[in-house]
Amino acid sequence: MTPLLEFDHVTLGYSSSPVVRDLSLAVEAGEVVALLGPNGAGKTTTLRAASGLLTPMAGTIRFDGADLAGRNPVQVARAGLVQMTDARSVFRGLTVEEHFRLRHRRQTLDRDLAYDYFPALRKLAKRRAGLLSGGEQQMLGLGRALARRPRVLMVDELSLGLAPVIVQRLLPILRRFADDADAGVLLIEQHVQMALSIADRGSVLVHGDLVVEGPAEQLLRDRHLLTASYLGSNENLDHEQAQST
Ligand SMILES: Nc1ncnc2c1ncn2[C@@H]1O[C@H](COP(=O)(O)OP(=O)(O)OP(=O)(O)O)[C@@H](O)[C@H]1O
Question: Which domains does the chain have, with CATH numbers?
């Protein structure tokens, strides 16, 4: 089966020195893949390249079997490879409802689909986004991304600034979306345990190198594998363990 999204020996960087080296990674239809790793590992850079914002120094990124080289971010998104925009970029003066009337990267949004995933948003339809809580704004951001009906959805730190309990409520929506739509999800998340609990597979980047990958269940079971791969950046893992116990 051809993966929906495939990084094939991809090297990425901003000037001459690479920050991601020889990365091979695939996301299949119906699959949630967690891209993990400590700060500065190259996770965001990886998503940027898939979104068409950064050209690989070497290697190929394919979407549905086709090389993405030369496609701009609008073309990539229109093809169905969508990155959720930062929830902090909601339009504070617009209501929830109005957010779904705006087109995004020239795509019309399926508001009812978003409301199916987030019934709370329907109730907040007339409220201005600036008056929503952080968690509600994140729901709106994720709702708008789902409303574009992506074939692969990329999410960079859904949890940023949110309480773990809210993250715990939002992450399963990604799982449900992958299952319902037979879509792929590539998820960057600092809450490693929570991310792996909804993922099929996990990959750990450290200083630009993919050091561990495997089924999510196995990574959850063999925690030492993950801890060792974080090479001295264990606070994330320990911190999360403390919060979940
Ligand atoms: N626009 C840029 N120009 C130059 N270097 C950059 C740029 N953006 C990121 N970097 C560098 O690339 C490396 C990887 O950064 P990246 O943001 O991809 O890491 P990350 O794994 O997403 O980290 P975090 O978890 O902290 O967000 C870092 O050393 C970072 O300083």
Answer: 5-80+154-244 (3.40.50.300), 86-149 (no CATH)
